[in-house]
Write a structure and sequence with these properties.
With 51 residues, the protein is mostly helical. The protein has a domain of 32 residues. It contains two helices and no strands. Helix 1 packs across helix 2. It is elongated, with a radius of gyration of 13 Å.
Length: 51
């Protein structure tokens, strides 16, 4: 959908975590939570509802 952030490319996010030396199980656990918060906030900002 134009003008809406749907999510991250998790393959790329996990590759970046690995490149930074992050424990893979931690990345799998934490990245979806971080992604959800980021997507929600970006969509609020793009919609003009920046709280």
């Amino acid at each position: 959908m134009p003008g809406v952030v749907l999510g991250w490319d998790m393959t790329a996010a996990l590759a970046m975590a690995a490149a930074l030396g992050m424990e893979p199980r931690a990345a799998v656990e934490f990245l979806p939570v971080i992604e959800a918060a980021m997507v929600r906030k970006l969509n609020e900002q793009m919609d003009g509802r920046d709280d």
